[in-house]
Every structure is written in C-alpha cells, then in structure tokens.
Amino acid sequence: MLVHSAVSWPANSPLLMAKVRSGGVELTGVEVLDLSLAGCMLEWRGWTLREEQRVLISFPTLANLPASVLWSEKDRVGLLFNNPLHEAVYDHLVRGYSLSGG
To answer: How many domains are there within the chain?
Structure first.
C-alpha cells in the first residue's frame, strides 16, 4: 500500500482554497495550508470551532466531505476527514496545486 505523507505548498504555488460549512454557516475562500489523506490544516478566519465539531469541507471540483475538528489554535484549525481521501482524489489535488511533500 502506498502511503502519502502530508504535503504543504511552496511559496510560489497557487493556493488551494476550500469552503467550510457547519451549523448552517458557510465560509468560502479558506486557505488550505497542508493536506494528507486523513485530513488537512486550514488558515481559519471564521467563527470559533471546537474540538470534535462536525463540519463539511469542499475543495474545487469535489463534493462536500464530512470532517471533524481535531484542534483549533488562533488562526489555524486541523480537520480529520470522516473517510480518508481516495488516493486518486489526493493525487489530483496535489498535482493541481503544485504541492510539495513536507
């Protein structure tokens, strides 16, 4: 089985943006700081998120993915996807946004 490590963006790469929804509130234009098959870290400028809070996150061209908040600190939040990303989806995002292993 191929294992993917988390990836982060080089400074000159296009940004991967996401949309996050929870409790009927939606925030668009959320910057994804790193990504793995299991979850992601976001730069967060929205409402306060609590650990274990359920959210929906969507990436360009992908439907809503259920996730839970693992941690939240100042302007960063870590999400755990309810189901890991399929490797093909992960690879599509990595290729599309020039992510680099980190």
So the answer is: 1
100-101/76-81 β-pairing: unpaired
One digit per residue, the tens of pLDDT, for the chain of length 102 reads 344 455 554 554 557 899 999 989 999 999 999 899 999 999 998 888 999 999 999 998 888 999 999 999 989 999 999 999 999 998 888 877 655 444
Residue 79's domain is classified under what CATH number?
Answer: 2.40.10.430
CA dist 42 and 17 (Å) reads: 9
What are the DSSP calls for 2-36, one per residue? --PPPEE--TTSPPPEEEEEETTEEEEEEEEEEE-
Place of tokens 């908040």: 69
Distance CA 9, CA 47 (A): 25
Beta bridge partners of 100: 8
11 lies in some domain: no
Rounded Cα gap, residues 67 and 32, in angstroms: 14
